[in-house]
Design a protein that fits this description.
Layout lengths: L7 E5 L6 H13 L4 E5 L16 E7 L9 E6 L4 E8 L5 E8 L2 E9 L6 H14 L3 E7 L6 H4 L8 H13 L2 E3 H5 L13 E5 L19
Parallel strand pairs: 1-2, 7-8
Antiparallel strand pairs: 2-4, 3-4, 5-6, 6-7, 8-10, 9-10
Helix pairs in contact: 2-4
């Protein structure tokens, strides 16, 4: 398989303790022929994450939160692509997981983030610092940030977003050349999820690269 065909999904699943919920998620990803899946709020501990190792998702990377089952992020990688891991960095509070490796010899950095509601800007600054210092090759950054980058388009009720955090976040994105893929493809579309929309970011400089192919998609309703 060549890297042009890789399909990446990001979902806030709001808990996967229920085996029926886990089965539905994995079945949907299998049906969509997903190769890399970012999950937020799995609510699973270290041992329970092994239950996601099904339907061809043989590589699983996760960051659990020992204090309780809330938060927790995971990256699932299908056996249909040849991914070789070289580095992994976890957050002790289950808010992010960064994995570096290579697919078909091409270096890639996978970064899945969950920002709990009300996170202050220091957390987002830490995320950008990690992106700057740890990215090798192509960066695929995704997750649920619980902020709205364009409040007038992303939400129907503007009181749910912090203007100060949003402004600073958008500036940092611009400073390091990151774009929201979905918003870049649909710059004027208004579409809401029940809570917040998982996001995928990539450097703007690689959008036109022959190594990257972006297909059409939509934001999954939660």
């Amino acid at each position: 398989m060549t890297h042009e065909n890789i399909k990446i999904f990001s979902f806030n699943v709001n808990g996967t303790l229920n085996p029926i919920t886990r089965s539905k998620i994995l079945t949907k990803m299998n049906k969509e022929k997903a190769h890399i899946v970012y999950l937020q709020e799995t609510h699973l501990d270290n041992k329970e994450h092994e239950k996601l190792r099904k339907m061809g998702f043989t590589k699983i990377f996760f960051s659990s939160y020992k204090s309780n089952h809330k938060r927790v992020v995971a990256i699932l990688i299908s056996n249909k692509i040849s991914f070789k891991q070289t580095h992994e960095q976890k957050d002790k509070e289950g808010r992010f997981i960064l994995v570096r490796g290579a697919i078909d010899g091409n270096e890639i950095t996978l970064f899945n983030i969950y920002a709990p509601p009300g996170s202050d800007f220091s957390f987002f600054q830490k995320i950008f610092d990690i992106i700057i210092s740890e990215t090798v090759g192509i960066l695929i950054c995704g997750g649920d940030l619980n902020i709205h980058l364009q409040p007038k388009l992303d939400v129907s009720n503007h009181t749910h977003t912090s203007k100060a955090v949003t402004k600073k976040f958008n500036k940092l994105m611009k400073d390091i050349d990151l774009i929201d893929i979905w918003r870049d493809m649909y710059p004027k579309t208004r579409q809401y999820t029940h809570f917040s929309a998982p996001i995928l970011f990539i450097p703007e400089s690689i959008v036109s690269s022959p190594f990257v192919k972006i297909g059409q998609g939509s934001r999954m309703q939660t």
